[in-house]
Amino acid sequence: MAAVALAAAAALLAGCSSSDDTSDPLAGEKADGGTVVVGSNNFAESILLADIYGEALKAKGVKVTYKPNIGSRETTYGLLKNGSITVLPEYNGSLLAYLDPKAEQKTAESVNAAAKAKLDAKLTLLDSAPAEDKDSVSINAETAKKYSLTAQSTLADLKDIAPELVIGGSPEFQTRQQGLLGLKSQYGLEFKSFKALDAGGPLTQAALTKNTVQAADIFTTDPTITKEKFVVLQDPKNLFGFANVTPLVYKSGLSQEGVAALNEVSAKLDTKALLEMDSQVQLENKDPLDVAKAWLKTVGLD
What H or E segment, with its residue span, contains residue 10? Predict the structure, then answer.
């Protein structure tokens, strides 16, 4: 959920989708018969994912309109319930935390099952993609080179190194289970010190780039990873939970053909591909619709 809130600012830089919808996204009108309305929250990655979903549906002959850049989950969930939106990109663990803050998250499958059980009866989740946008411990290129760490390295590989490293993150990261407490209890990591910064935002990114900290809490699809060659360490014990990209749909508004089309998208969308596309949109200022179309073509879904 933090990732969703923090990424909102990026939408102001990246702009909206190039889809030509000019209607008020908050108006609440139901879609015309046979038209699938694809909505997005107000941050760049959500807009990109909505374009991917919409164009994949169009490729199957489905009539699609867009309601981009609407707002937060609190707004879009209500629009889904009343049928104003048919499809919305979601993140399974974050959605479950919204629906049931006390729910445990042990596997992606159990997260999806629990979320479906809490959803409004008119809504459902489709297949989750391997792609995730969630917290991670990432290290800068200098540290990775010094200790021979790669994208295949895990948090466990830091056990002997951590006492030499300063780690940064939000003040809350120091006292959360999904933070220093869990890193110690799950992986045995005890760092040299902790530097309070922000939650994966510009302060954290700058500190990691400048080597003020050698490790930090960075979201897994943050384009800074690409720009600064940060290395995201694998989390095999799922300390940071689940945030798989997952279509949330208004059931009666989407045909079985539409369901199949979106499930095909999920089957091919991984974190690496999503990070590459986010980087194109947010660092290279490419139109998200063009980026979406290009990716769908490369995976044979155009």
Answer: helix 2-14
Domain assignment present for residue 238? The answer is: no
* Domain-ending residue, one of 205, 232, 259: 232
Please check whether residues 125 and 26 belong to one and the same domain. Answer: yes
Between CA 163 and CA 63 the distance in angstroms is: 56
Chain length of the chain:
302
Per-residue burial over 255-288, b if 16 or more Cβ lie within 10 Å, else e, is eeebbebbebbbebbebebbbebbbbbbeeebbb
Q: What are the angstrom distances between the C-alpha of 186 and each of 26, 50, 181, 189, 237?
A: 43, 36, 8, 8, 7
Q: In whole angstroms, what is the distance from residue 43 CA to residue 2 CA? A: 12
Domain that holds residue 92: 2-132+243-298
Cα 242 to chain centroid, rounded: 10
CATH code, domain with 210: 3.40.190.120
Task: For the chain of 302 residues, list the mean pLDDT of each consecutive stretch of 10.
Answer: 43 44 52 84 94 98 96 91 97 93 89 96 97 96 98 97 97 92 96 95 95 97 96 95 97 97 98 96 96 98 94
**pTM across the whole model:** 0.83
CATH code, domain with 287: 3.40.190.10
Q: Look at the alpha carbons of 175, 178, 181, 184 in this order and tell me if their dihedral is positive or negative.
A: negative
Q: How far is CA 79 from CA 30, 159, 181, in A?
A: 9, 46, 38
